[in-house]
Amino acid sequence: MDLATLMFVSYRAMDERVVRAMRDAGFQVTPAQARLSQRIADDGSRLTDLAHQAQVTKQTASVLVAGLEAQGIVERVPDPADGRARLIRFTPRGKAAARRALEVVGEVEREWEEHLGPELTASLRAALTTLGQVTDPYR
């Protein structure tokens, strides 16, 4: 398999674990909603920014946010920098969901480190961080 596919396989494994844990904790999120919510800034994000970062249309992002909003995970609030714009931000329930997701990510990374060992894990993180400097347009 090529490198990108190998990275994607591991990404999907992590993604599935996080979504399953979220559902077990009572958050009925889809993988697409989880990916979008990963991009919500601490002080909130505009819908257009979330759509751009998630590489989906504004309409798709709006549907995903509406689903999260219906569950009380996010809310739309006025943007203090522009009264015409709205920010998407986590509610207290959403912050709890985000904390749970981060816990699961930590658990999976610890499992991977147990399998790879600390040196290979550190090398993998360094290599992917370096690669991200040329492949991640949102840095």
Fold and architecture overview:
- It is a single chain.
- By secondary structure, the protein is mostly helical.
- The chain has helices spanning 3-24, 31-37, 47-54, 58-70, 92-116, 118-135, and strands spanning 74-79, 82-90.
- The chain has six helices and two strands, in the order ααααββαα.
- The chain has a two-stranded antiparallel ribbon with strand order 1-2.
- A hairpin with a 2-residue loop joins β1 (74-79) and β2.
- α2 (31-37) crosses α4 and α5 packs across α6 (118-135).
- The mean pLDDT is 93.
Task: Give a brief description.
Helix content is 67%, strand content 11%. It has 139 residues and is mainly alpha-helical.
SSE inventory with pairings:
Blueprint: H1 3-24, H2 31-37, H3 47-54, H4 58-70, E1 74-79, E2 82-90, H5 92-116, H6 118-135
Antiparallel strand pairs: 1-2
Helix pairs in contact: 1-5, 2-4, 3-4, 5-6
Question: What keywords describe this structure?
Answer:
mainly alpha, globular, 139 residues
What is the ordering of alpha helices and beta strands? HHHHEEHH
Strand order of the largest sheet: 1-2
Measure the end-to-end span. Answer: 27 Å
- Strand content of the residues, in percent? 5-15%
Q: Nearest-angstrom radius of gyration? A: 16 Å
Mean pLDDT across all amino acids: 93
Shape: globular
Q: Which consecutive residue ranges, at least 5 long each, have pLDDT under 50? A: none
- Number of DSSP strand runs: 2
Total count of helical runs of at least 4 residues: 6
Kindly state the percentage of residues in helix.
55-70%
Structural class by SSE content: mainly alpha
Could you give a short account of the major beta sheet? Answer: 2 strands, antiparallel
